[in-house]
Amino acid sequence: MMRRTLSRAALAAGLLVPGSLAWAGDPVLNSGDTAWMIVATALVMVMTPAGLALFYGGMSRYKNLLNTLAMTFAAYCLASLVWVAWGYSLAFGPDLGGVIGGTSRLFLSGITPADLEGTIPANVFALFQMTFAAITVALVLGSVVDRMKFSAWLVFCVLWVSLVYCPVAHWVWGKGWMAGLGALDFAGGTVVHINAGVAGLVLALRLGPRIGYGKEAMFPSSIALTAIGAALLWFGWFGFNAGSALVADGLAGSAFLVTNTSAAAAALCWMFTEWAVNRKPTVLGIASGVVAGLVAITPAAGFVGLGASILIGAAAGCLGFFAVARVKARLGYDDTLDAFGVHGVCGALGALATGLFADPAVNPAGAGLFFGNPAQLGIQALSIAATALYTAVATWLLARFTGLLTGGLRVDEENERIGLDGAVHGERAFEIE
What are the structural domains of the chain? Predict the structure, then answer.
């Protein structure tokens, strides 16, 4: 995401032209940019308690559907409060050694309706950033549904947003050390998807497989809900990626275009790959392909052209299918809804592809290997490795600490067999005779 470091530099150089007029000197409010960013923020907000909740809920078993929805909603609410209390300050406060932001913006201290971030109100910028923090921690849930304690999830969300998401966001978007290296992440390949995917895998390994995993059929509760959720995610992703330009201009339009194109290419490639391998093109596969393409284009959306977006989407569709259908089964880990296979793997693909295809004709702020800058690929690889390593270690430690606070991460065997909808919430999603 072209956060403060990139957007300010590009705007100051006249590379991004909000409202079709580059400004010089002190920034001024642009009503068009502001209106677009409010809409983009609302689009990203819809992705979590609507799109992701339905996408994950439909893939969970019928006895855990409501628990999946509750955990998604709770993640959004907790992240919202953490962000305004201290998260925004840690991610975007004054830089401390390239590692974390300072505490001068606790509870958004000092931010008034008149303050600007570029050409938009600072409070709109802060809210836009909040929606990213919320969906990132909610994505982690996909690896652990069916077996994680609700109480443990609540504690983990607060700790993880504070101590994992915020530092990584600062590294890339808040003038941290990755930004200093020149890492390119337009809308969250490292900060959102690799971060969430690796965290999900670590939690899944920590919890262990579900009872009966690999021995009994575990059918999704409703593929129809998953398909609707994927459509809402696709819709909201336009705010996710195009909104990351932070202005209403041609770059936002380009990000919008390549986002849709990559998702379409990935959905078709996943479908045809599954059709060739398993002889059936499933709706679940098509929906998963859409998300894989959206994930892969996210870091590249503001840096690549149309042709590259097709290649990135096609690669994500094929790679995502094999990561989910083959690699997971071979390695034997129980990533319930494939958060690592889709977000971790395809997020890494997209980050590397940015290092290959970043085109200065699209965005002068970045050039990849195929445009005369081979060093960019190494920078992208380093950013992937550093994010994955930090996230893995920090998530493991936070999971241990959370388990100590809540008497363990995992529900007991009886409740897992009964289903968490009834055992935890006292409700049922469906009336089963």
Answer: 29-420 (1.10.3430.10)
